[in-house]
Amino acid sequence: MIVAFSVTPLGVGEDVGEYVADAVRVVRESGLPNRTDAMFTSIEGEWDEVMDVVRRAVAVVEARAPRVSVVLKADIRPGVTDGLTSKVETVERHLSD
User: Fold this and answer.
1) Which of 22, 24, 34, 94 has its CA 20 to 30 A from that of 64?
2) Domain boundaries, position 30
């Protein structure tokens, strides 16, 4: 499964990069395949391990912010691995045709 999520601290002002970095650090230290872009962090693995990482990423922001907003989208597709790479490669292949 692939989960794309964003964690946004609320009530801490406009500059939230430091808080987001704390959440991304949790994801990167998990050892699961992941990518971060301007809007979301995507992580790939089994349901329980991915959701545990998301929970811990939210908790690290929640520890410093009075309120946290979370947006999450999941692609649950049993038997598929390396979806973070293969899905993008498929689109790129079609773009090059």
Assistant:
1) 34
2) 2-96
* Distance linking the first and last C-alpha atoms of the chain: 28
Number of domains the chain is built from: 1
- Is-contact 75 2, C-beta < 8 A? yes
CA nearest neighbour of 85 among 23, 9, 33: 33
State the Cα–Cα distance between residues 73 and 75, nearest whole angstrom.
7
Instruction: Give 25-29's long-range contacts (Cβ < 8 A, gap of 24+).
Output: 25/60, 26/53, 26/56, 26/57, 26/60, 27/53, 27/57
- pLDDT tens across 33-64, in order? 999 999 999 999 999 999 999 999 999 999 99
Check pLDDT > 90 for residue 81: no
